[in-house]
Structures are given as structure tokens and as C-alpha cells.
Design goal:
It is a single chain. By secondary structure, the protein is mainly beta.
Length: 324
């Protein structure tokens, strides 16, 4: 393990969500699917290399590839001081083919997450479908490899990302029994929220209602609802509740380039008063994801004695899109 620590390490956490602190200036015009493509930047702009007209917003051409880097920062504030550890990860996503499920054709995105943790890399797969009304995902466990329509291999089958992590013994040894119980309880709450956020990709929604523009079908969740205007909302899932709120359109600059983008906040029923989850999209795909979570440790009388928090930031470093 080569996690970078500002104070000696006391736990490890894996995560695949994507974020950045950069947000652009809000604009009143909607970031809806476009019917034409603009001229390219020198590095193949998202509009020139992005999807065709006809309602497509998220680029789903086979061969599209994105490379991101992330940092997961966990902080414990205790009477003895503050402990922080940062876990770095390198993440590659690629559209590798199609899979037919229940008579529907889905485009498969493979994600490979390589953390500082030497037990990786970890694999996951998302099945996308898109129409003029939105971007949807099939209700399939993201750790389950696809059966591609082409018959080609889905790639190396590595371990799936672990679920919640235990509070390490090295940290427990520094605490009294009462403190350990308090921080273990706070840690467990935080882990449940992290698992819930990560599980969004595997949650299903949809009652079969659709229009001429399309719509979510049974066994699917809605990742994006078009058009993407500020103030627009949709439900990812009713029970447990996950929603989406388009907060703003603007320009976002990441190492992979500068993009007109949308910023979406994802509320859910597991969140605490200081928790927030946000994601940024453009016609080049998902640009960034960020979350901040807090859990309070209390003594046997219910008095707060400290906090455990988690911050995840992932940003697009570079990408390559296939012209449609």
C-alpha cells in the first residue's frame, strides 16, 4: 500500500464515483441534445467528435475511451487530533460493444479502476440505452461481465470493487473502548452512504411509461433526462429514493479540456444535512463527479465527540471519441 498520508493511515476505502470542484458560470440556455456539430478544437472537441443529431447527447460509439484520475480523502476528527488519508486511483472507461438484454440492445461501457490498494485493479460494466428523452441504464449488477453480441471477450475479468471496508485494527488500537464504539458507529453510517451512492448504477426504475420521444422502460434507471435545462428534475429510483436536479449550465475546465457542461446534484434518502453529491456531463461524456459525506461520533449520552468525513474527487484527464 502506498496511500499518501498527511497523518498515519487508519483506513482504506474504494470508490468509483467521479468529481471536481470546478464549476462554470450558469447560463440560461439549455444544454439539450443538439442537431448540429460545431467546429473542432485542436484536440478533437466534444461537439465535433460527439454524437450525431436525433436526440443523442451522451457519446456511445464503440471505441470511445475516457481516462480519469481520482482522490478519495477520508478525515477523522477526534479529541486526540485530526487523521487524514488520501487514496489515489487511475480509471479507464471504454465502450466495448453491445449486449442484448430482454430483447433490447444496450451499449456496454467497461470501467477499470486501479487504486493504490494492491488488491486491484477492479472491473465494472454499465449497459446504456439512449433515446430523445434520456440516457438509461439496464438493471444489471455492474460487477457482472456482459455477454457481448459480437461474441468478443469483455476484457480481463478482475475483482469487483469491494463493498464497505472495516475500520482497521491499527486505528482501533489508538482508542479507548468508549471512543472505539462511537467512531465505529459513525464509520458504519458513512460506509452505508458510500455503498448507497456507488450502487446507483445498479438500481432499477421505470414503469414502462413512454412517449413518442422515448422514455425509461421496466428494469431501467434514468441517468439523464432530456432536455437538460437548469431546474429540470427526474427520479433515478423511487425506493430507495435517488433523484437528479440540474443545477446549472456553464463551462467546466478539466485537464481533458474546457467544455460547455451541466452540473447535476443527486439527492437521496441516505444523506445527512451536510452531505452533497454532484456530477458534471458534456457531449464528451461524464467529466467529473464529487461527493462530500459526514458522520458524527457520539458518546454513550449522545453528545458529539468528533466526526468522520469522506470526500471523493475525480476528473477527466484525457479522452478519445470515435466519429459517428
Amino acid at each position: 500500500m502506498n496511500a499518501r498520508e498527511s497523518i498515519p493511515s487508519w483506513f482504506l476505502v474504494s470508490s468509483v464515483l467521479l468529481a471536481t470542484a470546478l464549476t462554470g458560470c450558469a447560463r440560461p440556455t439549455p444544454n439539450a441534445p443538439a442537431s448540429a456539430r460545431a467546429s473542432a478544437h485542436a484536440n478533437e472537441s466534444f461537439l465535433a467528435a460527439g454524437p450525431d443529431a436525433g436526440g443523442a447527447y451522451f457519446p456511445l460509439q464503440i471505441g470511445n475511451r475516457w481516462h480519469s484520475e481520482s482522490d478519495f480523502r477520508a478525515t477523522l476528527t477526534a479529541p486526540a487530533g485530526v487523521l487524514t488519508v488520501v487514496i489515489h486511483a487511475d480509471i479507464t472507461r471504454e465502450i466495448i460493444g453491445t449486449e442484448t438484454i430482454a430483447g433490447r440492445t444496450y451499449v456496454v461501457e467497461r470501467s477499470v479502476t486501479d487504486e493504490d490498494d494492491p488488491s486491484g485493479p477492479f472491473n465494472s460494466w454499465i449497459r446504456y440505452r439512449q433515446d430523445a428523452a434520456g440516457l438509461y441504464e439496464a438493471d444489471v449488477d455492474i460487477s457482472q461481465p456482459p455477454v457481448l453480441d459480437s461474441g468478443a471477450s469483455a476484457g480481463p475479468i478482475n475483482a469487483a470493487l469491494p463493498e464497505a471496508r472495516d475500520l482497521p485494527a491499527s486505528f482501533a488500537e489508538r482508542m479507548s473502548a468508549d471512543q472505539l464504539d462511537a467512531y465505529q458507529a459513525a464509520w458504519d453510517v458513512l460506509q452505508k452512504r458510500i455503498v448507497a451512492i456507488r450502487s446507483i448504477h445498479a438500481l432499477a426504475s421505470g414503469d414502462g411509461a413512454s412517449t413518442a420521444r422515448g422514455g425509461v422502460l421496466p428494469g431501467e434507471l434514468t441517468r439523464l433526462g432530456y432536455p437538460l435545462r437548469p431546474g429540470a428534475t427526474w427520479v433515478i429510483r423511487d425506493d430507495p429514493f435517488f433523484g437528479s436536479i440540474v443545477e446549472a449550465n456553464g463551462n467546466l475546465e478539466v485537464p481533458g479540456g474546457r467544455f460547455p457542461s451541466i452540473r447535476i446534484r443527486i439527492p437521496n434518502e441516505f444523506m445527512g444535512p451536510n452531505d452533497v453529491v454532484r456530477v458534471w456531463f458534456s457531449r464528451s461524456g461524464q467529466l467529473a463527479f464529487r461527493y462530500h459525506l459526514e458522520s458524527v461520533a457520539t458518546d454513550v449520552d449522545g453528545n458529539p465527540i468528533g466526526t468522520v468525513s469522506a470526500d471523493y474527487d475525480e476528473t477527466l484527464r484525457d479522452f478519445s471519441l470515435v466519429r459517428p
